[in-house]
Specification:
By secondary structure, the chain is α/β, with parallel strands linked by helices. It has two domains: 197 residues, 2-enoyl-CoA Hydratase, Chain A, domain 1 (Alpha-Beta Complex), CATH 3.90.226; 47 residues, Lyase 2-enoyl-coa Hydratase, Chain  A, domain 2 (Orthogonal Bundle), CATH 1.10.12. It has eleven helices and nine strands. It has a six-stranded mixed sheet, with helices on both faces. A three-stranded mixed sheet has the order 5-7-8.
């Protein structure tokens, strides 16, 4: 564990620019509960500020990526359920926001089924690699709940509003190929290749031009909410700023010298 705050819900190792966060409650289906929400928020607060984190990989142990919210724990709350939901989501939503806005690109390896709020956690990543046998389930309407975890934003960005709305209203379960066609995931691979392929991509990012990758993330994140003129000007201002970085200068030099660039993340 390389994080300042120890956790029970997942493990994290940081090496060579890559932070690898592993959901580590396989016997319970890696659920989202109060402890997970608190620990995820603290982890994202730290990882998003660390200079040695140039990419983030999220994966899970066990047959399932995550069952989503811990319904057994929620059922025990009784009349305190609304307050519990507000407490859990305060942490979880802050963590997801920090993950989306961190400069380091995020890859998620989905080796098994994923449901509920964990679908949004998956969709919030910059790239999702999923196994052919995995299934993605919108479980909220089946239990009389509405979505949380940023679902109406993260899935809309990937699928479009009409397709995302249908996913939730019909409480759909998508196989890997259907999720790929809808834009909910980015790559479908054989089950045994999920971890290696996602790690390969994340390690490539971890040795890449971190400031440029972070700028790409930010520009795409804000694009739907900006006028054309504002977005174009921000692209120009951002590119001018990025051109001053060590990595941009190295990229140009490597191109001229016909060699592979050696980026340092600055």
């Amino acid at each position: 564990m390389n994080l300042a705050n120890p956790t029970t819900s997942f493990e994290c190792e940081i090496a060579d620019g890559l932070a690898h966060l592993v959901l580590n409650q396989p016997s319970r289906g890696n659920p989202i509960d109060g402890a997970f929400c608190r620990e995820f928020n603290l982890a994202m607060a730290e990882l998003s500020e660390r200079d040695d984190v140039r990419a983030l990989l999220i994966s899970a142990r066990g047959k399932l990526f995550s069952v989503g919210g811990d319904l057994n724990a929620l059922a025990e709350r009784g009349a305190a359920l609304p307050a519990t939901i507000k407490s859990w989501t305060a942490d979880l939503h802050a963590g997801i926001t920090r993950m989306i806005r961190m400069r380091a690109p995020v890859a998620v390896a989905v080796q098994g089924n994923v449901a509920g709020g964990s679908v949004s956690l998956m969709a919030a990543a910059d790239l999702v690699v999923i196994g052919k046998s995995a299934r993605i389930a919108s479980a909220f309407a089946k239990i009389g709940f509405s979505p949380d975890s940023g679902s109406t934003t993260t899935l809309t960005r990937r699928m479009g509003p009409a397709r995302a709305r249908r996913f939730f209203l019909l409480a759909e379960t998508l196989d890997a190929d259907a999720a790929l066609s809808a834009g909910l995931v980015d790559l479908v691979v054989n089950d045994e290749a999920v971890g290696p392929e996602a790690e390969r991509i994340a390690r490539e990012w971890a040795s890449g031009p971190t400031e440029a990758l972070g700028a790409i993330k930010r520009l795409f994140l804000q694009s739907p909410h900006r006028s054309l003129e504002s977005q174009l000007e921000d692209e120009a201002q951002t590119l001018a700023a990025i051109s001053r970085t060590v990595d941009a200068k190295e990229g140009v030099a490597a191109f001229k010298q016909k060699r592979k660039p050696r980026f340092v993340g600055k």
